[in-house]
Structures are given as C-alpha cells and as structure tokens.
Design a protein that fits this description.
By secondary structure, this protein is an alpha/beta fold. It folds into 3 domains: 155 residues, Alpha-D-Glucose-1,6-Bisphosphate, subunit A, domain 3 (Alpha-D-Glucose-1,6-Bisphosphate, Chain A, domain 3), CATH 3.40.120; 207 residues, 3-Layer(aba) Sandwich (Alpha-D-Glucose-1,6-Bisphosphate, Chain A, domain 3), CATH 3.40.120; 85 residues, TATA-Binding Protein, CATH 3.30.310.50. 37% of the residues lie in helices and 22% in strands. It is built from 14 helices and 23 strands. The strands form 5 sheets. Strands 2, 3, 4, 5, 6, 7 and 9 form a 7-stranded mixed sheet that branches. Strands 18, 19, 20, 21, 22 and 23 form a 6-stranded antiparallel sheet that branches. Strands 11-10-12-13 form a 4-stranded mixed sheet, with helices on both faces. The longest helix has 18 residues. The chain is globular and about 70 Å long.
Length: 467
Amino acid sequence: MTDFSHKFHPTILRAYDIRGIIGQTLSEDDAYAIGVGFAHITAKRQDTATPKIAVGYDGRISSPGLSKALINGLKAGGARVLSIGMGPTPMLYFADRELSCDGAIQITGSHNPKDYNGFKMVIGHSSFYGDDITALGAMMAQGITLHSQGISEDVAIFDDYIARLVKDAPTLGDCFVWDTGNGAAGPAVRALITQLSGTHELLFEEVDGTFPNHHPDPVDPHTLGFLRDARQAAAALCGLGFDGDGDRLGMIDAKGRQVPGDILTAYLASELLLRKKGEVILFDVKSSAVAMRLVEQAGGKPEIWKTGHSHMKSRMAEINCQLAGEMSGHIFIKDGYYGFDDALYVAIRVLKTMVETGVTITQYMDDLPPSFTSPECRVPCDDEVKFAKMDALAAKAKQDNADKDILLIDGIRVQDDDGWWLIRASNTESSLIVRAEGRDEATLAEKITQLTQLLASQDIIWDYQPA
C-alpha cells in the first residue's frame, strides 16, 4: 500500500468538468491524479473493489498523452479500464451504457481553443460535476492510500455506435452539408453519412487538433460562414455543424439562417408532442420566450433550468423529461435514446422530424413570430472576481425588481410582460453571459439599457453591438 496526494490548480476544477490550459494550469500529472481519485470514488459509490471505467479522448494534440496518464492513474487506483480510443464525447457516453460501466471519462477541450483540454466524467451513468469535482480536488490534496493495481484493455465500440445512430435514420432524398470542423466527430460523421440515403457533403473531416480551418464552436456565427457558403453552393436542404467533441449541434437552414438551439429544441418537440402530449420540454435559462411559447402551442409544458450539460441531464432524470435543449447547441433526447447530449443523434432526429412532420426546418423558421432578441453576448470578467460580481449584481437586481419577476436558479433572469434579460457567470470562460428579449424593438432597447446600467454599477462595461 502506498499513499498518494496531489494539488490541482484551483482554476481547473469547474462546475461541469475539469478544464485548463495545457502546460500552464493542466498537465499529465493532473490527469494521473484525476484517474487515481476517480477510481477511488467510483469504487466506493458503485460498491466494487474493481470499478469498470471507460476512457475516450478527442482529437486535440494533448489528448493522447493525457489519456495515457489518466489510464495509468485509474489503474493505480484499482480500476479495470476500457479504452475506446479517439472519438466524440457521445461515443464515450454510449460505451458507458452499452458496456455497463461503473464510470466513464472523456478527455476533451470541447469548443475551447486548441491549447485547452479537460475531462468530462460520469459515475453510475450520471454526470460527475459541481460538488463532486470539488470533493475530488479536496480528497487528492489530503491524500489517499492506494491498495491494488488495476488493468486496462482496448475495446472497439465505434461500429456499434454508428449502427445505433443509423437505426433511427429516415429515408432521405435531399442534399445535406455537414461540418465537423477538424474535430473528433469527423470519422464518425463520415461513417454515418455513408449509410444514409440522400446526398451528403462533409467539410473538414480530418481530425486536426490545431483546428486549421475554424474555431470548433458550431453556434458562433463567424464559424458558421463556411457551412453557410457550402450549403448555398450545394443547394442543400440544411447545414449541420459540430463542435470539437461532437456533443453540440449548430444548424443553417435553406435560406442561410442560423437556427438557435432553443428554436431547434422547439422544432424537435413539435414531432415528439404529436405522440406525447403534455410532456415537459426543458430549456436552459438563456432560452427565449418565443421558443417556450412554441412548445406551449404544440401541447407541451416548457420549463426553465440551469445552463450546463450536467445540470440539464440531472434535471431530466429528476422529472423523467424526454427532451431538453440549450442555446449553446447541447440537446438531450431521452425519447427513444439515452438522454445524453449527442449532436450526431440530434442531427438524425432533425432529419427524421422533417420527414415525419412534413415541415422542413426552413419552413418552421419561416413561420416563427417576430422576435426581438439580442445574441448571446460575452462580457469579459476575470474568473477571480466574476462570482463576487454576480452576488453584487443579484443584490442590486433584487432591490430594483419585484420578487415575482426574478429567477435566480442560474444567474439573474428578470422577466415581465414586455420581455426579459439575463446575466450569468460562464462556467467555462472568463466572462459573464448577457442576453435580452423584448416584445418589440423599443422594449428590447429598454432591456439592453437596464442591463448596461446594472453592469456599470459593478464597473463592468458592456458596449452592446446588435448582430
């Protein structure tokens, strides 16, 4: 028996996952320590001396090295490791379920710049996040005793994952453009579209951790320019874009419009609610009133919850929710699937919804009521002060608004008959997230003014520029 301890850089233990900058705040030593601690915690929670833990990684340059160190740490902690290799994060979640694992870890920097990386973790098929991550950090700083050496083996899951995606694919007769942005989803999307009917064009399928063509964020309007142009050139029915690890979907319709994540969720709900009236459809706190009204009109019950894939999945489990979506493009489908955020499966369900309902995403966008919303804006704010700033902003907002108009489950959302505004601290970036919606241009301008003045009260300058 040996004792082992490790101290992490405090900035990498985040709300949804562990994430940092390679060579500055995150190293292979950290990966090893995460493995040791995670194996120890999983063994206790799952009541097994040898927890079975799946490990996967994305296409970043640092990911293979982090994977090797993580696996060594898991083995040192006594785990049996199933290494599935490089692939999108949802393939790791799929392996966790299909291989009946006790836990699972994906090494990924998601949509962050190329010098970032991190770890998304699952125990008992549920997200390991928040207080779990804090506790892991505290436990490793104190130190634990290592009792036995585990083992590792390579497991092929790729073909089974693709077969599961194809299982729900509709018969298609149109052209579609896909952009994987040199991320980990490239090979999986290529394998998927070769088994779909219709015509398909794939952009930037080669996995390249330097992301030479564009930033791996499929909801950033700037990165969608490539997809928009390619869709137009191919006269495709729509364009589908993926982030660096394949758990977020961005979309362009046949008129070149970006489909926001909340509207895409409402669109998917339109088909689900034909079969299951009265279902709760979960939206994150950044979502628009327009999207929620669309769900109500379709016979569903919209509910607002905290932003973040871990928060959303936990809430879905609590209320047995069948569909949830975030503005960021994380969409979760439990109806006929597993309930985790899988952008490849969501893409299949979007295509299926177009076939089943006879309404394309473009027609759905055409029929939307007028919308007066700001984009999701990021206001720079240092990690060291942003949560203290949020506390002060919340106190000021409570002074200035009636209790019935304030929602504080995730940041500050103030809503009335004229619209709403939101401020929340990003859990993945050094910024505050700001968004507003009004019933017309004038009330939107009023909401923007309220936001600007509130932020200024804490010396935070927001120079709003309409999209």
